[in-house]
Fold this protein.
Amino acid sequence: MNYRHFIIPTLLICLTTHAEAQDSLSTRVSYDLTAETAVGTGDFTAYQLSTNRHHVLATRSNTAYLRGAVNVEHAFNKDWTLSGSVDVIGSVHADHKVYLQQCYANLSWKHFFLEVGSREQPLVTRDDLLSIGSFVKGTNAKPIPQIHLGTNGFWAVPYTKGWVQINFDFGYGKFLDNSYREDHFKKGNENGMKNILYATGAYYHQKHLYIRSNPEKPIFVTVGIEHVAQFGGTSYNYETGELVVKSKPANLKAIWNVILPLGDSNYFENEALEDWVYGNHVGVMTYQIGWNINQNHQLQAYLDNPFEDGSGIRKGNGWDGLWGLQYTNKTPGKQYVRGAVVEYFQSTNQSGPLHWDSGDYPEPIRSQITDLVTGNDNYYNTTA
């Protein structure tokens, strides 16, 4: 590939139209039609145009798409609302030609919701336009179809006078990229790459919980955790030159076990080393403090700390994480600067280069290991 043209002059053309209708029964229907073209001289679409957009614009150069959506919202009363959307994209010079970008139904009651389908989810604590995004629930990939429930924004806990507010989400989904992974696996074999690992039919579990104090006070804090897990399905891996195929269940027991990183205490006897912990887990812990300088200006500092196991949760991974400073300007009227973000991201420590844990070995080796070194987190490449 020609990486010399990574930064390229790019012509971007984007046309958007929006229509809306509403009847006396509190039903609102809106239509969106968008066309976008990116033209350049390199191998890839400019990073700034394609990143953090749920893969709407393809990463290949000289690409275009036409996007149409129908959105429906019906309010039964002041507390109950039913909404949904069908959002279709047709692309040229892209991995996927025509596909459903979003298709969901959402039932909301006051500050809570139950939702089924695939929907582009916004970042909870980061600026969608200025931040590099979330370490776990990022906005680069297409939305994953799931069933989940949670809060619409932050919900003030009763009897706390607004001092305690929470935002949570909990759900299960299904990865639908089997054909894409199989295609790339076959291409890897054709190119002599025998170290490719991939999985098909895998399921997805996600949850987050954020707790913050009253953001209208001069000083406020936010703490939270995001956790996702991949489980079930069939994995394909080359071991000593041979293709090894393993299937994992996605039954009620597995669904329960991935909520917390639980495993099989008899995993050696069951010849299932990867079931020391069910599924493949990764997460991030957030620590954030905000200062309302005055009514219109706000400053926040934050750390998103990634973890793959307990060493990351204990902050044994050094300076790894997303460190940021965010300024927000709420002044009414036209402003030249509405916000600014400065961020530093590191993922090189990974709790050290070694991993030496007695729990990874059977007896009699297990009892002979007296030291504990829980490093080599390798955040995105664990194979469990």
